[in-house]
Amino acid sequence: MSRLSEVLNVPEGQEFEYEGNKLKIIINKIFIINGRGDWCELASARFLMDMIASPEKIRITPTKPKLSKQQITAIKGRIAEGTPWAVKDISGEEIAFYSSTPCSEDYYATSMNAKMYDFLKVGQAVYLPDLIGDEEE
Predict the structure, then answer these.
(1) Angle at the Cα of 127 (from 13 to 122), degrees rounded to 5?
(2) Do 10 and 25 form a contact (C-beta atoms < 8 A)?
(3) Fewer beta carbons within 10 Å, N or C terminal of the chain?
(4) Who contacts 9 (Cβ-Cβ below 8 Å, separation ≥6)?
């Protein structure tokens, strides 16, 4: 992980958004999609300073993992019960499910079937509906 990735808390090569702009970090350089849809190196130091000063505005674009039918069913169950947000704890053995954006006090955590959610990364909040989209069982 590059130093810039560490500072912005965005994995290298992972697309993310900041104030409506699509970006990614590759070897300590930030690339942005220009008006033609091409990736170009970001040249604005001010823009970078704004990102460092306001990391809460950074939105990581979720990559859709390949899910089994069983995982899709489990995700749909969490959504149906009203806990569509998931975060894997630091041990990697417990999953916390939230009814609203994580960091609220309203959650349900379980270590049962944590392997079912093996696609989650430690500490990264995931909005489960984004993972299944319009997929059918």
Answers:
(1) 60
(2) yes
(3) C
(4) 55, 58
Neighbours of 126 (CB within 10 A): 22
Q: What does the pLDDT look like over 78-106, one tens digit per residue? A: 999 998 888 887 777 788 888 877 665 55
Q: Which amino acid is at 40?
A: C
Query: Which two three-digit tokens encode residue 112?
Result: 């049962």
| DSSP-assigned beta bridge partners for residue 23 | 16, 32
Name every residue whose Cβ is closer than 8 Å to that of residue 65 and which is 6 or more positions away in sequence: 119, 131
For residues 45 and 77, what is the distance between their CA atoms, to the nearest angstrom? 45
Look-up of token digits 């990581």? 60
CA pair distance 3, 50, nearest whole angstrom? 17
Tokens of 22: 């699509």
State the DSSP code for 95.
E
CB-CB contact of 4 with 48 (8 Å): no
Q: Is 5 strand, coil or helix? A: helix
Amino acid at residue number 65? P
